[in-house]
């Protein structure tokens, strides 16, 4: 576990900036409220085994006591560096993004499943979109009951979305909570759950997948 | 004969008491030639004396007594009495005598030639009255003159009515057309109105000569005045005559219009104005219900029947006169003195005959006057234009297009520095909603041509038949197109085109205003003469409010393509057009209320175009969230409460779906603000809070949150002063405000606050029916009655005590204290104080401990 070097920091922040924009400031300056210390302190980024974690400082202090090979994870994993040293966000950062996202789209209940199986969001499935979204802007995808389902890129700006055909792509799928879901469910041996993931999604979303 | 000038004093007395008498008197006077030596009857020749039967009888009865008269030598008697020479006629003598009397020269204002005037109706008008009066005026004493002034004037004014009345009876007997009758009545009314005005004038003039000694100059002025009045009266009679004659037979008497127009150019402004008004009345009735098209050369060459020629001549003459008239009134609308009358004429013409030729020049005269600093003129012009907008059936919409385009040009020219009325009147436009739909115009089937190289006999036959059929179809088409032309209603396509033109001009105006409002403008300084004239300074953005209202009204007609740009402009207007936060409310930026209006309109536009796409206007929510704070501290305008309620309604009440975080943030902020708002506004805010909590179950966490926590999706603590509602973390706080508001002095607010707290308890929720705007409307008016309603019989006095605001309570306490006038505070004073203060601070303690 080590802090990110300058190059890595830029990569991580640039990637996050695509989704949260100017709210990145809030994300970094955020004060931790839970923790064992009387003064919890802020949050910071840590790199551990090619993965980047968003951790409160009190946890970092405690984690230093654990050997590197014994430490499996800490805080919230927000992404990982690939072998070619590129940074990629994982779905586990969804909660963080959702809380600070500037641009959101909401999908119709009929299109939820399609998105969770890894498809792009089509115009026909689009229920609502933030005004003034530029093209290729990182967006967070919500269900109509205001639960974050995943994130992606806006394929078209809001203005262009008006004129699209129902079959045109509005949002490019990048990651969704169902990615984590199969592994969990299979581990538990409840394959039946696979058939209706959305009803369980709130539970997993709230439970923080790390 | 008290009215005779020989007895001036009694005449003046009777004239004062019985104004109606004047007419009779005058008639007798003019008939008798009213000279200075009335007792002798020699002017009358034998023919003039009417001998009644009674007279004859009398003479016959007393024949014996009158016998001596036969032998009288009248010549010698008159010589004896007057000193006449035997060959001199009595009339000659009188003339001489008169000459001797006024040998001082001709009087000022005396008509030079005494030739009679021939009126249009063919009557000869003698100038007896004036000459007689003129003679009198010089030969009698000053006091007599004063009487005369009064008498003369009343006579003049009265003269019009009988004449026109006589004419009207004449007309009625003819009973040819209704129009002339109506015109008669109008003329009569006009005459009466003038009469009244004149009387007022006279009333003013009358006071002056009552001053005991009148200096000589004043006398001259008076005489001039008398003269002017006389001339006016004559002119008025002439105008009335001309009017009736024209309307009785427009074909032949149209030439009188020229005379009337010459009168318009009269030096005397009153006469000119009267002529203008009477021409207006005439034109209003004469103008046909169609637009006159000048015949083309080809048409002129053709031989036409007598009737057609007559109609054509009449039309061209009318057009010519109308043109000169319009040119005149447009010109005189620029002059200072005749401005109001001319504008009145223009506006009336626009309202009455908007379909007729030269409408463009009328509109061009009216539209720029919308920016006039004179309120009356502005009002008159705007009402004329509104009437054009409203009954477009009269002119088929063309005038509307022209007017709207002129307004658009005016706004462009003046760079939006205009009175708001110029844009407000656009609200009166009406658009046909059905026209927005695509009109299904059946396209004619393409004629299929078969080109066969080889044609059998049969085919040739068939082809012939087909040709015949085609011919018939062609004929039918022609007939159909003829029918279409004859149709009264304008074709749908034409109508559509017009509406598109109007709409584009209207939106051009609105967008221009919005665009110029973006630039922080410095208020234009008033020039000194404008300030003197009491011109109200226009605000930095005089048209913005009106434009925003208009945009809200026509939001459903805006093309979806424009929507993006429009929202961009509104967004930057809502944020004050500046990016830096420090001088957010510096001079020259939009006010809080204007910004709120921008937000409202953005929501209305999006709502009306909901079928296109459901858009989440996040930016506007953020703006609104911040503006809520400012709304309390900025100076209030009259409509501020209304605007606030409208914003709440448009953004939070009607919005289909909002983020839970955001909804919670608004719930929290609104209930915090409810402390600072007036009770009606607080009511609106609380009603909105209740609505949000009922609608979004997730938000109810805010009611029973114990110890904060992570319900807020990552944001663990509430940031009360944050700019972004999404990041406020309101879900991790608790809505303690409602329990404090339940003790609000206004019972209505208290009730709503307590229902909010108990939302989670009650399972069966009745959706609230009271909307924010409704709340404002209801409680702004009810506000004064709150005191009464708080004193309902079921309320206990102890409760009422608690509901009193602290300051009020203290002041009443002080009064009591003074009454007691003792140093030590008595027990009955201390007890309620303790009770009040403990109840008041109990909540506070609970909050902060």
From TrEMBL, chain A:
<keyword id="KW-0539">Nucleus</keyword>
<dbReference type="GO" id="GO:0003723">
    <property type="term" value="F:RNA binding"/>
</dbReference>
<comment type="function">
    <text>Required for proper 27S pre-rRNA processing and 60S ribosome subunit assembly.</text>
</comment>
<dbReference type="InterPro" id="IPR015947">
    <property type="entry name" value="PUA-like_sf"/>
</dbReference>
<dbReference type="InterPro" id="IPR005155">
    <property type="entry name" value="UPF0113_PUA"/>
</dbReference>
<dbReference type="GO" id="GO:0042254">
    <property type="term" value="P:ribosome biogenesis"/>
</dbReference>
<feature type="domain" description="PUA">
    <location>
        <begin position="103"/>
        <end position="178"/>
    </location>
</feature>
<dbReference type="Pfam" id="PF03657">
    <property type="entry name" value="UPF0113"/>
</dbReference>
<dbReference type="InterPro" id="IPR055359">
    <property type="entry name" value="Nip7_N_euk"/>
</dbReference>
<dbReference type="InterPro" id="IPR040598">
    <property type="entry name" value="NIP7_N"/>
</dbReference>
<dbReference type="Pfam" id="PF17833">
    <property type="entry name" value="pre-PUA_NIP7"/>
</dbReference>
<protein>
    <recommendedName>
        <fullName>60S ribosome subunit biogenesis protein NIP7 homolog</fullName>
    </recommendedName>
</protein>
<dbReference type="InterPro" id="IPR036974">
    <property type="entry name" value="PUA_sf"/>
</dbReference>
<comment type="similarity">
    <text>Belongs to the NIP7 family.</text>
</comment>
<comment type="subunit">
    <text>Interacts with pre-ribosome complex.</text>
</comment>
<dbReference type="GO" id="GO:0005730">
    <property type="term" value="C:nucleolus"/>
</dbReference>
<dbReference type="InterPro" id="IPR002478">
    <property type="entry name" value="PUA"/>
</dbReference>
<keyword id="KW-0690">Ribosome biogenesis</keyword>
<keyword id="KW-0694">RNA-binding</keyword>
<dbReference type="InterPro" id="IPR016686">
    <property type="entry name" value="Ribosomal_synth_fac_NIP7"/>
</dbReference>
From TrEMBL, chain B:
<dbReference type="InterPro" id="IPR016024">
    <property type="entry name" value="ARM-type_fold"/>
</dbReference>
<dbReference type="InterPro" id="IPR005612">
    <property type="entry name" value="CCAAT-binding_factor"/>
</dbReference>
<keyword id="KW-0539">Nucleus</keyword>
<feature type="domain" description="CCAAT-binding factor">
    <location>
        <begin position="596"/>
        <end position="753"/>
    </location>
</feature>
<protein>
    <recommendedName>
        <fullName>Nucleolar complex protein 3 homolog</fullName>
    </recommendedName>
</protein>
<dbReference type="InterPro" id="IPR011501">
    <property type="entry name" value="Noc3_N"/>
</dbReference>
<feature type="domain" description="Nucleolar complex-associated protein 3 N-terminal">
    <location>
        <begin position="236"/>
        <end position="325"/>
    </location>
</feature>
<keyword id="KW-0175">Coiled coil</keyword>
<dbReference type="InterPro" id="IPR016903">
    <property type="entry name" value="Nucleolar_cplx-assoc_3"/>
</dbReference>
<feature type="region of interest" description="Disordered">
    <location>
        <begin position="442"/>
        <end position="464"/>
    </location>
</feature>
<feature type="compositionally biased region" description="Basic and acidic residues">
    <location>
        <begin position="451"/>
        <end position="462"/>
    </location>
</feature>
<feature type="region of interest" description="Disordered">
    <location>
        <begin position="94"/>
        <end position="119"/>
    </location>
</feature>
<dbReference type="GO" id="GO:0005730">
    <property type="term" value="C:nucleolus"/>
</dbReference>
<dbReference type="Pfam" id="PF03914">
    <property type="entry name" value="CBF"/>
</dbReference>
<feature type="compositionally biased region" description="Basic and acidic residues">
    <location>
        <begin position="94"/>
        <end position="104"/>
    </location>
</feature>
<feature type="region of interest" description="Disordered">
    <location>
        <begin position="1"/>
        <end position="55"/>
    </location>
</feature>
<feature type="region of interest" description="Disordered">
    <location>
        <begin position="154"/>
        <end position="208"/>
    </location>
</feature>
<dbReference type="Pfam" id="PF07540">
    <property type="entry name" value="NOC3p"/>
</dbReference>
<feature type="region of interest" description="Disordered">
    <location>
        <begin position="787"/>
        <end position="806"/>
    </location>
</feature>
<comment type="similarity">
    <text>Belongs to the CBF/MAK21 family.</text>
</comment>
<feature type="compositionally biased region" description="Basic residues">
    <location>
        <begin position="792"/>
        <end position="803"/>
    </location>
</feature>
<feature type="compositionally biased region" description="Acidic residues">
    <location>
        <begin position="45"/>
        <end position="55"/>
    </location>
</feature>
């Amino acid at each position: 576990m080590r802090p990110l070097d300058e190059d890595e920091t830029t990569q991580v922040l640039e990637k996050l900036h695509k989704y949260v924009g100017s709210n990145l400031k809030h994300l970094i300056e955020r004060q931790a409220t839970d923790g064992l210390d009387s003064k919890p302190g802020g949050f910071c980024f840590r790199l551990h085994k090619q993965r980047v974690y968003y951790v409160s400082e009190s946890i970092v202090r405690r984690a230093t006591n654990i050997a590197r090979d014994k430490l499996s994870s800490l805080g919230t994993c927000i992404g990982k560096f690939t072998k070619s040293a590129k940074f990629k966000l994982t779905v586990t950062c969804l909660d963080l993004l959702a809380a600070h996202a500037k641009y959101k789209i909401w999908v119709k209940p009929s299109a939820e499943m399609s998105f969770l199986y890894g498809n792009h969001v089509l115009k026909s499935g689009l229920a609502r979109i933030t005004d003034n979204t530029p093209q290729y802007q990182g967006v967070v995808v919500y269900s109509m009951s205001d639960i974050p389902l995943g994130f992606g890129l806006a394929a078209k700006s809001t203005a262009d979305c008006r004129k699209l055909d129902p079959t045109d792509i509005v949002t490019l799928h990048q990651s969704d909570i169902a990615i984590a879901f199969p592994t969990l469910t299979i581990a538990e041996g409840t394959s039946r759950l696979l058939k209706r993931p959305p009803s369980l999604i709130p539970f997993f979303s709230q439970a923080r997948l790390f | 004969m008290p009215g005779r000038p020989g007895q001036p004093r009694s005449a003046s007395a009777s004239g004062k008491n019985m104004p109606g008498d004047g007419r009779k008197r005058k008639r007798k006077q003019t008939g008798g030639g009213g000279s200075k030596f009335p007792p002798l009857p020699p002017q009358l020749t034998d023919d003039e004396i009417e001998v009644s039967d009674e007279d004859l009888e009398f003479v016959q009865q007393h024949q014996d007594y009158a016998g001596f008269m036969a032998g009288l030598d009248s010549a010698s008697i008159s010589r004896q009495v007057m000193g006449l020479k035997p060959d001199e006629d009595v009339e000659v003598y009188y003339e001489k005598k008169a000459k001797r009397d006024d040998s001082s020269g001709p009087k000022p204002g005396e008509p030079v030639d005494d030739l009679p005037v021939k009126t249009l109706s063919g009557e000869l008008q003698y100038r007896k009255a004036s000459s007689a009066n003129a003679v009198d005026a010089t030969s009698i004493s000053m006091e007599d003159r004063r009487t005369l002034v009064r008498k003369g004037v009343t006579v003049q004014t009265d003269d019009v009515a009988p004449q026109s009345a006589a004419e009207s009876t004449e007309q009625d007997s003819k009973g040819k057309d209704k129009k002339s009758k109506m015109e008669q009545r109008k003329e009569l009314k006009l005459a009466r109105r003038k009469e009244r005005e004149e009387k007022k004038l006279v009333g003013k003039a009358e006071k002056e000569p009552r001053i005991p000694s009148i200096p000589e100059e004043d006398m001259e002025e008076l005489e001039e005045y008398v003269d002017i009045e006389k001339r006016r009266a004559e002119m008025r009679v002439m105008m009335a005559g001309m009017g009736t004659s024209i309307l009785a037979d427009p074909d032949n008497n149209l030439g009188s219009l020229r005379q009337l127009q010459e009168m318009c150019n009269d030096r005397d402004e009153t006469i000119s104005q009267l002529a203008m008004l009477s021409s207006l009345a005439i034109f209003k009735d004469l103008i046909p219900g169609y637009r006159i098209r000048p015949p083309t050369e080809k048409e002129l060459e053709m031989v036409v029947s007598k009737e057609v020629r007559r109609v054509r001549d009449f039309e061209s003459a009318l057009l010519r006169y109308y043109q000169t008239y319009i040119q005149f009134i447009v010109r005189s609308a620029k002059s200072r003195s005749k401005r109001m009358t001319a504008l009145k004429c223009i506006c009336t013409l626009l309202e009455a005959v908007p379909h007729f030729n030269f409408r463009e020049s009328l509109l061009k005269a009216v539209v720029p006057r919308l920016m006039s600093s004179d309120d009356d003129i502005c009002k008159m012009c705007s009402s004329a234009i509104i009437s054009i907008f409203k009954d477009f059936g009269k002119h088929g919409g063309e005038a509307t297009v022209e007017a709207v385009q002129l307004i658009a040009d005016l706004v462009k020219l003046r760079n939006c520095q205009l009175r708001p009325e110029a844009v407000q009147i656009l609200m009166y436009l009406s658009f046909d909603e059905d026209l927005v739909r695509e009109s299904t115009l059946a396209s004619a089937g393409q004629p299929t041509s078969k080109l066969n190289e080889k044609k059998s006999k049969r085919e040739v036959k068939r082809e012939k038949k087909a040709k015949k059929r085609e011919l018939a179809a062609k004929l039918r088409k022609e007939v159909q197109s003829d029918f279409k032309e004859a149709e009264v209603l304008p074709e749908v396509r034409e109508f559509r085109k017009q509406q598109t033109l109007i709409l584009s001009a209207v939106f051009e105006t609105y967008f221009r205003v919005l665009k110029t409002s973006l630039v922080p403008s410095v208020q234009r300084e008033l020039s000194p003469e404008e300030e003197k004239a009491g011109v109200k300074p226009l605000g930095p953005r005089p048209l913005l409010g009106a434009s925003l209202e208009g945009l809200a009204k026509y939001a459903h007609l805006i093309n979806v393509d424009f929507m993006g740009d429009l929202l961009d402009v509104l967004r930057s207007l809502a944020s004050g057009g500046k990016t830096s936060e420090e001088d957010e409310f510096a001079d020259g930026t939009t006010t809080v209320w204007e910004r709120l209006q921008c937000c409202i309109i953005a929501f209305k536009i999006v709502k009306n175009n909901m079928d296109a796409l459901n858009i989440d206007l996040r930016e506007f929510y953020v703006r609104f969230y911040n503006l809520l704070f400012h709304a309390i501290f900025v100076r209030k305008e009259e409509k501020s409460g209304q605007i606030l309620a409208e914003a709440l309604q448009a953004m939070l009440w009607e919005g289909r779906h909002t983020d839970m975080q955001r909804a919670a943030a608004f719930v929290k902020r609104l209930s915090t603000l409810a402390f600072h708002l007036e009770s009606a506004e607080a009511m609106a805010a609380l009603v909105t809070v209740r609505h949000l909590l009922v609608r979004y179950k997730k938000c109810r966490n805010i009611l029973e949150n114990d110890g904060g926590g992570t319900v807020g999706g990552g944001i663990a603590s509430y940031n009360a002063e944050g700019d972004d509602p999404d990041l406020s973390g309101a879900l991790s706080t608790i809505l303690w405000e409602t329990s404090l508001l339940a003790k609000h002095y206004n019972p209505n607010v208290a009730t709503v606050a307590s229902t909010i707290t108990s939302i989670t308890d009650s399972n069966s929720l009745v959706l609230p029916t009271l909307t924010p705007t409704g709340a404002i409307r209801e409680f702004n008016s009810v506000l004064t009655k709150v005191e009464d309603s708080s004193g309902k019989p079921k309320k206990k006095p102890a409760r009422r005590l608690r509901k009193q605001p602290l300051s009020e309570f203290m002041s009443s306490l002080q009064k009591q204290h003074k009454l007691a006038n003792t140093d030590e505070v008595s027990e009955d004073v201390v007890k309620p104080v303790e009770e009040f203060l403990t109840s008041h601070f109990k909540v506070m303690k609970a909050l902060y401990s």
